[in-house]
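Hi Prof. W.,

I finally got the Nicotinate-nucleotide--dimethylbenzimidazole phosphoribosyltransferase prediction working! I wasn't sure whether to trim anything, so I left the full sequence exactly as given:
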Amino acid sequence: MNTFDIQPVNSNTAAALTHKINYKTKPLGALGVLEKIALQVGCIQDTLAPALHHPAIVVFAGDHGIAKEGVSPYPQEVTYQMVYNFLQGGAGINVFSRQNGIAIKVVDAGVNFNFEAHPDLINAKVGHGTKSYLTGDAMSEAECSTAIDKGAAIVKEICAEGCNVIGFGEMGIGNTSSAAIIMSLLCELPLEQCIGRGTGLNDEGLKKKTAVLTAAMDYHANLDKTPFNILKTFGGFEIAMICGAMLKAAELKMVILVDGFITTAALLVAAGIDTNVLDYCIFSHQSDEQGHALMLKKLKAEPVLHLGMRLGEGTGAAVAYPLIKSAVNFLNEMASFESAGVSNKA
Ligand SMILES: Cc1cc2ncn([C@H]3O[C@H](COP(=O)(O)O)[C@@H](O)[C@H]3O)c2cc1C
Ligand SMILES: O=C(O)c1cccnc1
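And this is what came out:
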């Protein structure tokens, strides 16, 4: 597996940035969360005048063997059908990305379908879906590290094209199940607090999902619970790729826009591998998937938005992006008390 060299952000810049923010023509703290974002982006870029270039969202798609156990109300075919929807520009993520000037890349991380070559589809297929982790591992060690490496390589290329702010999305029927188990093991929380309704399970469906995931965890009770082993055993190709992509983005000092429940689960693994990745993460929103609030709490993360969204695909990141721009713009463009000749006395 690729190793990553992630530097913590330069906290020396923080004092100078805080001074700059505090002397803008506004009451102290009056731009709230935008001030925190401006501070973070300035620290990531190690400058008092940060800039956002070529924003991108990468949507990783992969199928899950566990889907055949009835853990999602939707059939596995929806994964490949949604990939076509992404390529045709008709999905939620296409709409919000278009609106906000964000480029989208779609990646076949391991969909159970053979796509013909398409100029907008990155072929990084590791397999035709993972195996069911009910009675075995979702991925082999080699598959899991290949997925991490491919995610990293994709980000390296996007960064080389001039992008310095990146979000990650996912598509994979059944992947809220992977995310729930990853959360339970890495946050050390009971499975019941981590499992949600995903795409909309009813009470009976939720019971079934809980029974299946409980059985899977029981089967793997003796697993040596390192972040990598948890990912390999219960993850998905798209989740492993997002994990590698996040670690590489942090190594390259990019601003990372974290989306919802599944991408935050990928981040839990990434942070388990190197906690410095968290310095580069802006938490775009709190998803309505039950479990996301607790996940964010565990990460001491303050989500920018809480809109009752629970879609994935990177939609939360795309919707939050204009606010990141607002934060950077006020830092760069707003007058200071001194430059505007405004009296700085309460
Ligand atoms: C039409 C459709 C579009 C989606 N876009 C994202 N997801 C989301 O739902 C899936 C996870 O939920 P579960 O674990 O319940 O299957 C993922 O593919 C996720 O990205 C979608 C789901 C559907 C049905
Ligand atoms: O929060 C998410 O990312 C999410 C929630 C439900 C279904 N798909 C994605």
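The first strand starts at residue 56 and ends at 62. Does that look reasonable to you?

Thanks,
D.
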